[in-house]
Amino acid sequence: MPPAIEIHDLHKRYGDVHVLRGINLSVAPGEGVVLLGANGCGKSTLLRCLNRLTPHDGGTIAILGTEISTLKRAGLRAVRHQVGYVFQHFNLVPNVSVFQNVLFGALGRNRHGLLRTWSAFASAEDRDRAMTCLERVGLAEKAAARPSEISGGQQQRVAIARMLMQAPSIVVADEPIASLDPKAGREVLELLFRIVSEEGLTVLCTLHQLDLAAEFGQRIIGMKAGRIVVDGAAGDLPRADLDDLYHGAVRVDQPAGTVTADLVPA
């Protein structure tokens, strides 16, 4: 079985700013990895490169054995379907129900497009699956509510249910608890890692909380200045090595005309 994620000598630049500087990374199927690093170290850019939301400039990325850099539209869509994202900002559609937001997770695998993900037109199978996903995150009773009517922690649970609706093999969670208070954040993280474990999914999750990283991650990867400088089993890494990821970190201003990105000096 190929690695879930295989990255070799990955580089990304924004103009004169060298963001990713030769990243090498292999993540096994079913592995739970936490990615650490100060703001500006390049970790968010790395996550966006994984499904070519941001194109890389050099090196290779393979997802489940498929190298993505030369894929055409249909092939790239198939790879993206295998990677579910959970973001810091929940990205829910505000003027529709929680249930409808979860149904939107079926869009990538629905051959009939957006129309068939609307509740009135969705298949009975998709409607049943959406409710099952809400039950998995403990929010079946909130199916008819709108996002504004539930808490931030509950909104992130809806986003996790939407990701489950996609039926991915890999979950990428980009600071999923950064917008939540500590209690709600821990509950969401416990839920996310329990579900990916039960489903046998691969997870790559960025965090800033070192204690939570050590508690939930099987493996911790640390980035600094566009490079991986720490990589090991969560229980084997000295705390000083993790603390050092946040000491002496440098961030430069975004060059004009580029998209928002984590940036490090060339």
Structural write-up:
By secondary structure, the chain is an alpha/beta fold. The protein folds into 2 domains: 1-82 and 168-266, P-loop containing nucleotide triphosphate hydrolases (Rossmann fold, 3-Layer(aba) Sandwich), CATH 3.40.50; 92-167, no CATH class. 30% of the residues lie in helices and 23% in strands. It is built from 8 helices and 10 strands. The chain has helices at 43-49, 73-81, 98-103, 124-136, 152-166, 182-199, 210-216, 239-243; strands spanning 5-14, 17-27, 32-36, 58-63, 66-67, 83-87, 170-174, 202-206, 219-224, 227-233. A 6-stranded mixed β-sheet has the order 6-7-8-3-9-10, with helices on both faces. Strands 2-1-4-5 form a 4-stranded antiparallel β-sheet, covered by helices on one side. A hairpin with a 2-residue loop joins β9 and β10. α5 packs parallel to α6. The two termini are 37 Å apart. The model is unreliable at 252-266 (pLDDT under 50).
